[in-house]
């Protein structure tokens, strides 16, 4: 796929014209009128006169859609900039048609768990970003009194872990911590994001070959997700605080989510491009660049996720771009149990999604809902982003849904190229 049109940095476009503009539930020829970075009007194709000083971008038959919003990106700056940084991450986002990312609160040093730490992160990002960036705050044990001040300072909402995060500066929370945090968030219209896995102390130790993917998969069984999702659903119903399940891996948790939504819980859920693209059966021995948590599961589970997405039971698809340096992936040893968990796909999300979605009953009209407007609502950016409407930011992606391309390392912009290198999309 799916070549994305490059526009020179700093271009002052005042009209974008295409025969395939996606607005609401229609695809039609249109002129999009832009002023000062905002959409000010939408006219029938070719009807907008070109005045002196106007700059027309004629996209021909290329598709013009709302820019993609990726609400699950680990940028890691400051503190771990050898893993990723704002300049490289946002350049990769722009190359993939993503016009806004929301940065996760952990893996940077310091984490975004206080107003002071948030301001440190803002300063680190200043002057480096090629796309818009919003920020999640973090909930950790004991910081509940920081939450409302962080909201006032500008975070989009909060994320917590129900199991070890993998980094000591961002510890996971207990149910008691969650009751305290959600009491603080009641009435704010904020949202709390959950890494929804519970540890299982009764689970037998993993004794298989650490180079075999099935050994790692057995160490994070579906019931760890199911139990955690059930706890989140109950908390959501109790407090009526918006809750969101990040990177749902196991389709076994979907009945709980459907039941909670039906009962009135303000609960949403995302899955990721890698859960919709990869299958456990196809991961070779020692290929630790495929490790993430929760894990990539079996082909049948992948197809169940696609079916849930098609039926509207999953609200959005994200990258969960979680980079690290190659040495942490232990590529030489191939040890799935010890390698860092995380997959880098920020730049490739649109391509990955459409390459598989088009053969499963999805249309171009589904993409803005799953990759733009629903992520905008989650991140409290609706009304500004996520649609082609007058008054909205002129965040657009222009692309060819029929063109295929090969992924090569040289074309990737994120810092460490541990990703889908050489795969065709």
Automatic annotation (TrEMBL):
InterPro entries xref list: Allantoinase (IPR017593), Amidohydro-rel (IPR006680), DHOase/Allantoinase_Hydrolase (IPR050138), Dihydroorotase_CS (IPR002195), Metal-dep_hydrolase_composite (IPR011059), Metal_Hydrolase (IPR032466)
Q: What class of enzyme is it?
A: hydrolase
Gene3D superfamilies from the xrefs?
Answer: Metal-dependent hydrolases (3.20.20.140)
Q: Which Pfam families match?
A: Amidohydro_1 (PF01979)
Reactions performed catalytically: (S)-allantoin + H2O = allantoate + H(+)
The coenzyme or cofactor needed here is: Zn(2+)
Q: Which domain of life is it from?
A: Eukaryota
A GO molecular-function descriptor: allantoinase activity
| E.C. no | 3.5.2.5
List the pathway annotation: Nitrogen metabolism; (S)-allantoin degradation; allantoate from (S)-allantoin: step 1/1
- UniProt GO BP: allantoin catabolic process
Q: Which UniProt keywords apply?
A: Hydrolase, Metal-binding, Zinc
Question: Which residue range or ranges hold the Amidohydrolase-related domain?
Answer: 63-403
PANTHER family reported in the protein's UniProt record: ALLANTOINASE
Family note: Belongs to the metallo-dependent hydrolases superfamily. Allantoinase family.
Q: How does it assemble?
A: Homotetramer.
- NCBIfam families in the record, alphabetically? allantoinase
Q: What's the protein here called?
A: allantoinase
Q: Which organism is it from?
A: Xenopus tropicalis
Q: Quote the gene name from the UniProt entry.
A: XB5950266 [provisional]
């Amino acid at each position: 796929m799916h070549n994305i049109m490059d526009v020179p940095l700093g271009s002052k476009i005042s009209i974008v014209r295409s025969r395939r503009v996606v607005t609401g539930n229609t695809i039609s020829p249109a002129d999009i009128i832009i002023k000062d970075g905002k959409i000010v009007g939408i006219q029938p194709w070719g009807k907008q006169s070109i005045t002196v000083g106007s700059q027309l971008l004629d996209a021909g038959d290329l598709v013009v859609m709302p820019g993609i919003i990726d609400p699950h990106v680990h940028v890691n700056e400051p503190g771990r900039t050898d893993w990723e940084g704002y300049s490289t991450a946002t350049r990769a986002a722009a190359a993939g048609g993503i016009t806004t990312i929301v940065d996760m609160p952990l893996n940077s040093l310091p984490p975004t768990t206080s107003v002071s730490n948030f301001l440190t992160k803002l300063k680190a990002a200043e002057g480096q970003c090629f796309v818009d960036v919003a920020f999640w705050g973090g909930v950790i044990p004991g910081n509940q009194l920081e939450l409302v001040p962080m909201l006032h300072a500008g975070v989009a909402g909060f994320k917590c872990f129900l199991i070890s995060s993998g980094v000591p500066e961002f510890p996971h929370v207990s149910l008691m911590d969650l009751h305290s945090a959600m009491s603080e968030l009641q009435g704010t219209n904020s949202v709390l994001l959950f890494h929804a896995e519970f540890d299982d102390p009764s689970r037998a130790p993993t004794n298989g070959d650490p180079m075999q993917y099935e050994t790692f998969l057995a160490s994070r069984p579906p019931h760890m997700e199911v139990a955690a999702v059930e706890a989140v659903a109950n908390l959501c119903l109790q407090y009526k605080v918006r809750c969101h399940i990040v990177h749902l891996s196991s389709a076994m948790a979907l009945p709980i989510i459907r039941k909670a939504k039906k009962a009135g819980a303000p609960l949403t859920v995302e899955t990721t491009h890698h859960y919709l693209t990869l299958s456990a059966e196809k991961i070779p021995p020692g290929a630790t660049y495929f490790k993430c948590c929760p894990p990539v599961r079996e082909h049948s589970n992948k197809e169940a996720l696609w079916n849930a997405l098609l039926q509207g039971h999953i609200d959005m698809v994200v990258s969960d771009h979680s980079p690290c340096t190659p040495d942490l992936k232990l590529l030489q040893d191939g040890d799935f149990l010890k390698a860092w968990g995380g997959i880098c796909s920020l730049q490739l999300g649109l391509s990955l999604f459409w390459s598989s979605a088009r053969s499963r009953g999805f249309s171009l009209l589904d993409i803005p809902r799953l990759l733009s407007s629903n992520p905008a609502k989650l991140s409290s950016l609706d009304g500004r982003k996520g649609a082609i409407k007058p008054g909205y930011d002129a965040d657009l992606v222009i692309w060819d849904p029929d063109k295929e391309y090969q992924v090569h390392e040289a074309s990737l912009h994120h810092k460490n190229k541990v990703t889908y290198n050489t795969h065709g999309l």
